[in-house]
Amino acid sequence: MSHTLLTRDQIAERAAQDIPDGAYVNLGIGLPTKIAKYLPADKDVFLHSENGLLAFGPPPARGEEDPELINAGKEYVTMLDGGSFFHHGDSFAMMRGGHIDICVLGAFQVAANGDLANWSTGAPDAIPAVGGAMDLAVGAKKVFVMTNHTTKTGEPKIVSELTYPVTGKHCVDRIFTDLCVIDVTMKGLVVTEIVDGMSFTELQAVTGATLIDATQA
Amino acid sequence: MSHTLLTRDQIAERAAQDIPDGAYVNLGIGLPTKIAKYLPADKDVFLHSENGLLAFGPPPARGEEDPELINAGKEYVTMLDGGSFFHHGDSFAMMRGGHIDICVLGAFQVAANGDLANWSTGAPDAIPAVGGAMDLAVGAKKVFVMTNHTTKTGEPKIVSELTYPVTGKHCVDRIFTDLCVIDVTMKGLVVTEIVDGMSFTELQAVTGATLIDATQA
Amino acid sequence: MINKADKDLKDVLSQIKDGATIMIGGFGTAGQPAELIDALIDLGIKDLVIINNNAGNGDHGLAKLLKTGAVRKIICSFPRQSDSWVFDELYHAGKIELELVPQGNLACRIQAAGMGLGAVYTSTGFGTLLAEGKETRHIDGKDYVLEYPIKADFALIKADSGDRWGNLVYRKSARNFGPIMAMAADVTIAQVSKTVALGELDPEHIITPGIFVQHVVQVQPAHSNVAAIA
Amino acid sequence: MINKADKDLKDVLSQIKDGATIMIGGFGTAGQPAELIDALIDLGIKDLVIINNNAGNGDHGLAKLLKTGAVRKIICSFPRQSDSWVFDELYHAGKIELELVPQGNLACRIQAAGMGLGAVYTSTGFGTLLAEGKETRHIDGKDYVLEYPIKADFALIKADSGDRWGNLVYRKSARNFGPIMAMAADVTIAQVSKTVALGELDPEHIITPGIFVQHVVQVQPAHSNVAAIA
Question: ipTM of this model?
Fold first, then answer.
């Protein structure tokens, strides 16, 4: 069979479908921020940013940028009516205290037990930097991961055990890749959707951990 | 010799003299609240109340009472220009975090080592109640105690060791009584002032702990 | 479209069941959600654990709730007051359990729950009867007691204004425990004097962001003219 | 009469000495007290410990301070950025010590200092390299790491408006670390765009009460027209 990889926008669009009306959501820097534009207008989804914003909106019109109104990715944003500002303490209380419903993160690797690696490749001379990655990984009620299924060189990113330094243990609930959707469960990695034209066997072949097929369920 | 006891107002007036310009002060419920009226108008002294007020002012005019503007003693107050409201978490952060300069408390007993008892007489059938007493005792940079020197039945309230349950250990810095002013120091209880007409020997006789005379210093 | 202000008081409270742990805001009567408490009494549920600074005054509000026998245990800092006869009688009769917590530790433990902390070392209470049996630690020259978070199934609080996303602002010293209880409960129900349109509350002035609030119920202000609304 | 706004920038900063631990507010450039940092550089002091979310960008502000060699150690969550070449070079040359702290733990440890807690159990970082060697505990089904408060001798922060008693309000996402750093430092110095009269800030809207602020310094807003003030 032959299949087509989902584009980054298509992964974002797919992930957006799993965000319910009324959800408080933190979209990690990078790929996950793309989800914002696929949230349907008839839903109230509340976007949280670590630097003290709740219910922020799309980027401002050109010339309307305010250097004091940025998100955690240091991009200019706007505020929706009903949005609010607060300090870093309250902002991470929202996260650590389990008040955020869904956090969507990028990943270097996800392990079969839900361990996430996304903050360090462990390269010996790299300058370490963690930001809010570890807080986001353990704090939200549900953690979604958005990632390509394999690295640029074809190595699996979904693995039986992490080889990169862990960001959070047992934290990932669902994985959206350019090939499939996977639920991380007590039984293992359960594949619920695969791109058209790809078989479960083919998917398993490019994955570094044992998958469970639930696409017929 | 013969001496006159200070009135409650006179003790308050004396204690007020030791509160410097710019001090953040919590006046405990009861006797200490009397200090407010002896603070000189040319000083900015900031009164803190546990229930979320900073820089509150005198009672309102009759008919101007607001049931939502009360202090920790549940008395009606007003706000000064420059005052602020905050929640209980921040209010006790001010206390526990060492941001309050002076706290003035009542006492059942003060021990020679600065231990304070003011929350419970230990009576077996009494309903225990503590409020903010323990937080106030350990939180402020300096703790002043205002009390009669002895109980109504003439028992010493300043004692070598507490017989009542402790509120805070090693917390009292200065004691203002109707007979004297005492500094609690590493060396012991140092008497700096005695009411006119009373000798140090007479004061010692009505005190349950050894005093050091510094009234000639 | 999310509207947290679309249910009436009775509907909102009906989700509270026997055995619930409930935080109730207020310091004295300031910030006490009187109408929510009355509706809670009407529910007729029992075996409740209540968290409040006090244990009721007079015969109204929290005292009235206690009087119905609905409360198994109360966690508070100052139960004994000149007009706390309802609690006093229950306590002396052994009909209510009391966990006495210093006021600042009460606040801090509620905050710890809202912040998702496992436990905190606090200096308040060290060496006292209220820390007996508790773990202690000497840190950087000072003694601390290990205290655990206080969480709740529900928080019933009073705010001044709220919008349909649950954003709240308070009024003067009625703010007290409201903002921190809202953060520490699974479901926070706020009674407000005014429901305002989205955007009417300045994002700089919102004290409790809507993320901490599940329901907003507008009630007639307690200090309004009763004759006028009768 | 207390006037916390009566000294000029240079006078206020002159109390900072070699070896000081200094919190600096801001997330990126939002809320960064640029004028205070410039004045700190002019002081020429050394051996500083800096606490900030980042480790400087480009060649200005915090990066410029690092470049002078004044900083012995930095405590931050995200030093590595596309334009953090000043820090990168110092780090690779072994000329600066780095304590890397997850951003939420940084906030929480700063809060713990302000609140007077001895230590807190936080879930963030458990099982990671950043918790290696740290005490852990299993509480109520979840794993936590014991983390200690981060205090400072000074906090340099940026607010929008302030009054002579030190009350502050912030602007939008420039609020970030300001309010919690103000609570955690012995001496907090706030640069403001506007100094207002006592009473002009609504007591309901004050974010940082003056008790947490020792000095208020008005500076020319950074985004004002440079030509107009030249």
Answer: 0.97
